[in-house]
Every structure is written in C-alpha cells, then in structure tokens.
Amino acid sequence: MPQSNTREVAQTLDPVWSRIRDEASAMVADEPRLAGLVHASVLNRRTFEDALCYRLGQKLASGEMTEGLVREIMTEAHDADPELGRIARTDAVAVLERDPACHRLIQPLMFFKGYQAVQAHRVARHLWIQGRVDMAYFFQMRTSEVFGVDIHPGARIGQGVMIDHAHSIVIGETAVVGDNVSMLHSVTLGGTGKEDGDRHPKIANGVLIGAGAAILGNITVGHCSRIAAGSVVLESVAPCKTVAGVPARVVGEAGCDQPAVSMNHLLNTTV
C-alpha cells in the first residue's frame, strides 16, 4: 500500500494517535533538544497505548519499582481492558477543548500532570477491580507522590474528565465522578469523619468544580451544576444550579447548558 494511503487509513482508524505523532514531529523540529524524549515517548512507540504506558512508566518509576515493571503492569491492564485506551483518548480531547493553555493533543500526554494522574488512576482502578489491592495502592501512592493527586483506586471516574493544574486533588474511595466533568486544583471529594461504607460524594455528568472547593460526605451534585471556587459543599445540589460559599448555598442557575465545557466560573454570568 502506498505510504500516503497507509497514512490516510491510520488517521481514519486512530485520528488522535495520528495527530499526536504529527505534533511530535513538529515538536522535534521546533525544539531539537527534546528530540530524544519525543522519539522515545511517541515516535518510537507503536500505538497510543504504548506511548501512554511508556510515558507513565517514566514518571511513576522509583527505586521501589523500575520503569520497565511499571510499564509492564500498565500494558497488561490496557491489553486486558481496551476501554482504558479509548477513554484516555477521550480525556485528551477534553483537555484540548477546555484548557486554554492546551494547544496540541500531545501536551496532555507529555506534560500535563492532571491528565497523567487520571490515566494512572484508571490503571489502579483496573487493578482494584481485579482484586490486586496492594498493587492498586502502590499506584495510588506513586501517583500522589509524583503528581500531587491522591485518588483512591476504589473511586469511579467517568470519561471526558479534565483536571486543570491538578495540584492537591483528593478523591475518596467511594466517590463517583461522572462523564465530562471539569475541576480545578485543590479540589477535595472527601468524607466527613470516620464512618465506613459509602461515604463520599457522587458527581453527576457535566459538573464544573472550581479551585479549592471541598465536597464532603455521601451527597450528590446534580448534572451540569457549578461549584464555585473555595466552596464547602455539605448538602446535595440539584441539577443545573450554581452553589457558592461556606457552607455552600444555591446562588443561581448554572448559567449555561454545559458548564464543564464552557469553563465559565463567573457567578454573575447570564450566558
């Protein structure tokens, strides 16, 4: 098959990976001193999954677990559950669409710790479901140490999720985060004490959570709602509302159909 036709087929089958490879080539041309890193992480990789596992192996390796072992465990998880790769692509596109600092699909894969931490958690969650609890905890520990993002492997996180900046994120064991959720740094989805069982928040689809917000207890945040920065949410939130304050109270409607996509944090918006 001619090279041009092969390229067209590759773009049709996996446009995200094809675009990342094109962007990697451009990155090497623009910044030759990154050539070794970019070739090793992207251009020498066979697939998107291969690149993702390689990159996270580099980041999560330590004296306790070599890069090769971390990558092997992650590759096994992706081979066993192809949904991990599909969702990782969806997350990357979500970051590109919502983060104004992101201009290329290669950036989340190479540089954005929020994206990398979520993908590491997805492997930890896979291990947790498989009963490999100790290995899941190891991945949680390394993700927290490296990225400053502490997500319990029992937590369930949907697809199309973006965590911007992603410093000091805490998500508890029984928390649920729906699809197409966006959150800023220093967000806590936590419990309220020493109670066991189902004790963490349930975040519905399309929710926007501002920086420094704490959502505590087994409560529900309805779909397409907004949590203002710095709020402490202790009671369930109805769909399509904006809450703010300590403790948080409803201060208006969500302001738009998809707040997690628009990323509009203004409380007085009429958009």
UniProtKB/TrEMBL annotation:
Serine acetyltransferase N-terminal domain boundaries: 16-120
Q: InterPro entries, per this entry?
A: Hexapep, Hexapep_transf_CS, LbH_SAT, Ser_AcTrfase_N, Ser_AcTrfase_N_sf, Ser_O-AcTrfase, Serine_acetyltransferase, Trimer_LpxA-like_sf
Looking at the record's lineage, which domain of life comes first? Bacteria
**Reactions mediated catalytically:** L-serine + acetyl-CoA = O-acetyl-L-serine + CoA
Q: From the UniProt record, which GO molecular function terms apply?
A: serine O-acetyltransferase activity
Q: Name one Pfam family in it.
A: SATase_N
An example GO BP is:
cysteine biosynthetic process from serine
Q: What metabolic or biological pathway is this protein involved in?
A: Amino-acid biosynthesis; L-cysteine biosynthesis; L-cysteine from L-serine: step 1/2
Keyword list (alphabetical) reads: Acyltransferase, Amino-acid biosynthesis, Repeat, Transferase
| Any Gene Ontology CC annotation | cytoplasm
Write down the EC number. Answer: 2.3.1.30
Enzymatic class:
transferase
SMART domains recorded for this chain?
SATase_N
Query: Signal sequence: where?
Result: none
Family per record: Belongs to the transferase hexapeptide repeat family.
Q: What is this protein called?
A: Serine acetyltransferase
Q: Which gene encodes it?
A: cysE
